[in-house]
Amino acid sequence: MRFHLLLCVAPIFAAQTRAEDLVLKIPPVKSSLDVKGRAAGITVWGAVSGGPQGQFKLALTADLSDVRDNIGALLASQLNRSERCGERLSVESATLAPASPAAVLTAHVHYERFACAKAFGREIVRRLVGGNAAVTVKLTPSAGADGISMAPEVLKIDADGSLGELLRSGSLGATVKEKIASGVESSIRKGLDLKSTLPPAVAAAATLRGARFVSGAEGRLWFSVDGEVQISAAQFRSLNWKGLAVENPH
C-alpha cells in the first residue's frame, strides 16, 4: 500500500517516516536542441530516494534517441568548413551507438586542403590532398562537481594515403576527435540541466557522481547519471514542486 506524504495534509505522519523510505519521482521533462533548424528532443526522468544515514540519492535518465538520429547534422554544425585557400571539411553521415558505459561514434567525412599562390598576376588554387574517411571515436562519460564530461579515444581511422596520415598524426585528427566529443557533451549537458529538471532545493544540493550510455527499450539510446543530494530529511519532506508528492513506497 502506498502513502503520499503531503505535509499540508499529514504533517504528523510525514515526520515519523524514515528518511530512507522517502522517494520523489521526477516525471518526464522535455527539452530540445536546435540542429540546423530542426528540434532534436531530449526527455529526462528519474527519482530522488532516501538512503542510510539520511543521505539522498539521485538517479536520472535521458532519452537521446532523437539526438542520435540527428548526430550527423549536429556534427556538421560543429565541424563543417569551406575555405578557399585552406581546409574544406564536410560530415557526410554519422552513427552513435552505446557500448556501455561508453558510446561509439563513427563519422564519415570528406576532406580537402587547398593552397593559393599568385603567378603571372593571377591567383592559382591548387588542391593538395583530399578524399573520404571514416573516423571511429569511443566516448567515455564521467560526471562530477562540474557536470558531465566526455573523454574521446580514436579507435579506428579508415582513409587512403596522405589523408589517412594527416588524420592519424596531424592536427586535423585531433580537431575531429575533440569536436566529436564536445558536440555530444554539450548536447547532453543541455538536456540534463539540473536546474530545469529538479526542484530548486534539490538542484542546488545535487552533485553528480557517475554517468554511462545505456541501451534503452526498443533500441533507444539512453544516458544515465547518478549522484548525491545533500539535503536534510525535513527539507526533503517539505518539497512541494509542481504538485509532486514525496512518497513512501512501502
Please give the largest β-sheet. Answer: 5 strands, antiparallel
Q: Based on CA inertia axes, which overall geometry fits? A: elongated
Give the overall average pLDDT: 86
Strand order of the largest sheet: 2-3-4-11-10
Q: Identify the quaternary structure here.
A: single chain
Helix content: 25-40%
What are the secondary-structure elements, in order, as H or E? EHEEEHHEEEEEHHHHEEHE
Output the radius of gyration. 24 Å
Number of helices: 8
Report the portion of residues in β strands: over 45%
List its traits.
alpha+beta, 2 domains, 5-stranded antiparallel sheet, 8 helices, 12 strands
Tell me the layout of helices and strands.
Elements: E1 3-5, H1 11-16, E2 23-35, E3 38-50, E4 56-63, H2 65-69, H3 71-79, E5 81-82, E6 87-99, E7 102-119, E8 122-144, E9 147-159, H4 161-169, H5 171-191, H6 194-197, H7 200-205, E10 206-215, E11 221-229, H8 233-237, E12 246-248
Helix pairs in contact: 3-5, 4-5
Can you give me a brief rundown of this structure?
The chain has 250 residues and is an alpha+beta fold.
Explained architecture:
The chain is an alpha+beta fold. The chain has 2 domains: 3-66 and 191-248, no CATH class; 74-138 and 151-186, no CATH class. The protein has 8 helices and 12 strands. The chain has a 5-stranded antiparallel β-sheet. Strands 5-6-7-8-9 form a 5-stranded antiparallel β-sheet. Helix 3 crosses helix 5 and helix 4 (161-169) crosses helix 5. The radius of gyration is 24 Å and the shape is elongated. Residues 1-16 have low confidence and may be disordered.
